[in-house]
Design brief:
The complex is a heterodimer. By secondary structure, chain A is mainly alpha-helical. Helix content of chain A is about 50%, strand content about 5%. Chain A contains nine helices and two strands; from the N terminus they run E-E-H-H-H-H-H-H-H-H-H. In chain A, helix 2 (about 50-60) packs across helix 4 (about 85-90) and helix 8 runs antiparallel to helix 9. Chain A is elongated and about 60 Å long. Chain B is an alpha+beta fold. Chain B has ten helices and ten strands. In chain B, the strands form two sheets. An eight-stranded antiparallel β-sheet of chain B has the order 2-3-4-5-1-8-10-9. A two-stranded antiparallel ribbon of chain B has the order 6-7. In chain B, helix 2 crosses helix 9, helix 6 crosses helix 7 (about 275-290) and helix 7 packs antiparallel against helix 8. Classes of the chains: A mainly alpha, B alpha+beta. The complex binds zinc ion (2 copies).
Amino acid sequence: MLCERCKIREANIQYTEVFNGVKTDHHFCAQCARELDFGQYSSIFEGEFPFAEFLSALLGGETPSKRQEKYQQIVCPTCGTTYDEFVKNSCFGCADCYGVFDVLIHDNIKHIQGSDHHKGKIPAGRQADGEDAQQTADPSETGEQSVRSRIQLLERQLKDALRKEEYETAAWCRDQIRALKEGKENDV
Amino acid sequence: MSEWFEEIDAERKNVVCSRVRLTRNWDEYVFPSRLDDGKAAEMIRRLCEGMKDIDGLLGLKYDVVDLSQLGELELRILREHRVLNSSIIKKKAPMAMLLSEDESVSLVLNGADHIRIQVLRAGLHMADAWKMANEADDYVGSRFSYAFDEKYGYLTSFPTNVGTGLRAAAIVHLPSLSLGKKFPLLVSDMARFGVLIRGICGEGRENYGALYEISNQKTMGQSEQEIVDMVSRVAAQLDDQENQVREMAMKTHRLVREDELYKSYGVLKYARRLSMKEAMSYLSQIMAGTADGLIRFSRPVSVPRLILGIQTANLQNLSDKPLDKDELDAARAEYLREELPQLC
Ligand SMILES: [Zn+2]
Ligand SMILES: [Zn+2]
C-alpha cells in the first residue's frame, strides 16, 4: 500500500484513530508520519512509545464533553497530576494515578492494550492470588476473600454506572470500594 | 564499545539483533515526570548504592554512567548504539545508567521511568535476551519494591507500557522482501497480530538500507513468554520469506544480483564522498551478498559494525573538529575505505 499522504513511498506505519467513537485506519510512510504534526509527541516515531501520542486523541476524542467536565477537577493526591494533564500528555505522574484515574481510563487502556488485566510475571514476594479462584464464590470463603468479591461486585456496578453516565451511583461505588480497600490494608 | 554486535547469527542471517526491554518503577518515588531534581538525584544515589554489587550479574562488569554529565555527542553515540532512545537524550533531569562493558546490558535510571532494563543480543536470540532481562529484573526487584498492581501489573509512566512493561524488538534486514508488492500486505497482517514494523533510518528520513524494526504493540494481557515468542516468530518468518525471495532472484537473475553487489563494493571501497543514503543502500547489498555467500572477503566483516561506524555521531566523534555535511560525506567514505576488507 502506498502512503496516503505522499502517495510515493510505501506505507509502513499504520495507526487507528478514534474520534467521537469512529475508528479510522491510516497508512503513512515513516517520513510523512514524522512530518505530520501529531502534537508535541512527534518524536515518538523514532522513540519507543509508538502509540502514546494517539492515546491523547483517544482519551480526549472519545470522552463525552459532559463526562470530561465532570472529571476535570480530579487530581491525584500523591503527585498532583490532573485529569486534564493526563489527557494532554498521556503520561501518569505516579503509581497512584492508576487508582485515581482508573474509572476514567479503564476502557481506554483496554482499547489500547486489548486487555485490562496483567498476565505474566509478578514481583517476588508479592502473592500470586489465583485470579480464577477469586471469581468463583466459595461458601467457605475467608473474610478477606469475601471483601475481595464484594470489591469486585462494586467494581462491576461502578463500570455499569459509568457506562450509563450515572455519576452519583459511580461516586458511591468508588467510595465504597476505597473504604473496603483501606479497611483491608488497615487489617494487615 | 558495543561488541555484542560482532556476532552473526548463522541460522537467521537477516536478523541483525534482538532486544528486550523492561520498564520498572520504584514504589517509593513518584514517576520521573513529577520527580523534582533533588528527589531524582536522591533516588539515583539510592539505586546505585543498592546495586553496588552488580558486577557479575549475567557474568558482566558494569560502569556507572552519569548521563546528565555527558555531552550531546556522547549521548547521540549511545543512541546510535541503541543503548538510549531519543526521548531520554532530550531530557534534562538527573539521569544515570549502569552499563555493561560490552553495552549489551543497560539499566537506565530516571529516564521516562525509574528503571529501564535493556538487553541486546546479536541475531535472533529473543528467548535468551528475555532470560537475561528477567534475571536482571529479579536482581533489581529483590533490592527495590516495584510499583505493581494486581490488575494493571507493572505500573509505568505511559499506559502503553503497563502490564508486563516488556518491549521485545528485532531488527531485520529485508532488502528484497520490502521491494515486493506484497510487502504492505505483510505489514498490515503483522499489525493484526499486534506486531509493529517500522523502518529504521539512521539520520535520514527515508528508510535507507532496508532495515526494519519489529516489536510488540501491546504490553498487557499476554505473558512475557508469549510476547517474546510472538515477536521471535514474526522475525523468523520475515527471515524465511526474505530468503525465499532472494533464492528465487538468484535462480533467475544471478548475474544482475552479482553485478549490483560488486558495483556496491566498488563504490564503498573507492568513493570519496558517500551520503548516508548511498552508504546504507550499498551496505545493504553487501549484507545480503555476504549472507548468500556471493562475495568473500580477506577477513570476516560485520556489516552491522560498519553501519554503526558510518552514523553521524560516530564520525563526528572520530574527527577532531565539527563536520559539516560535505565533510561528513567525505569522512563516511574514508571510514568505509579503511574498514571494508579486500576481496579474496
Ligand atoms: Zn508519505
Ligand atoms: Zn499520581
